[in-house]
Amino acid sequence: MVRGLTFLPPGSTTTLQTALGPGALSGVNVETQAALMVPVAGEAATSPTLLQVEYDGQRFATALSVVPPGPVIIQVRNTGSTRGSLLLINWPPEVIAQTIKPPLEFEPYLSGGALVARQTFRRLFRSERVDEKEGLGIRQVTFVFTDLKGSTAACQCRLLYARGGRHSRSRVRDE
């Protein structure tokens, strides 16, 4: 079903090659929700069909209204000023014919926090930086305190002060 996934650098043309089956070709920029849909129908092509797509940062526009099944070359021209992305999916006719689409079900996954905390993630992406226009949603923060020099002793002195009243005050102050 998935036929391509790519970034669309601003001011450039990105080319993808794939083979399409009957049904429909859809594409979406998951960040902006810009989308395209082209029916895939007719006689199967033996030579590649050229599908030109223009992306202006807000919406996609295709040069063809229908694409035949078979090999296809998709050229996406980003005329916008920011980087985009494109996920292409070739939907089979039986999915398109359904009036009520089945819910998407996903396998068990790691939360973002659990993923970032994994040593494997840190090792694989140690040199990666998050772009200023991207981000990581952090919903849970954990502070880890270690035994700072003398902190345990100071805590014990405070406990003595709480138990012993004013006679322990000088002892806590001195420590």
Mean pLDDT: 83
Structural class: alpha+beta
Alpha-carbon distance between the two ends: 69 Å
Contiguous uncertain segments of 5+ residues: 171-175
Tally the beta strands.
Answer: 8
Major sheet size, sense and barrel closure: 4 strands, antiparallel
Q: How many separate structural domains? A: 2
Strand order of the largest sheet: 1-8-3-4
Strand content: 25-35%
Percent of residues in helices: 10-25%
C-alpha-based Rg, rounded = 29 Å
**Total of DSSP H or I helical runs spanning 4+ residues:** 5
Helices and strands, in order, run as: EEEEEEEEHHHHH
List keywords for this structure.
2 domains; four-stranded antiparallel sheet; 175 residues; elongated; 8 strands; disordered C terminus; alpha+beta; 31% strand
Task: Write up what this structure looks like.
It is a single chain. By secondary structure, the protein is of the alpha+beta class. The chain folds into 2 domains: about 1-95, no CATH class; about 140-175, no CATH class. The protein has 5 helices and 8 strands. The strands form 2 sheets. It has a 4-stranded antiparallel beta sheet. It has a 4-stranded mixed beta sheet with strand order 2-7-5-6, with no helix packed on it. Strand 5 (about 50-55) and strand 6 form a beta hairpin. The model is unreliable at about 170-175 (pLDDT under 50).
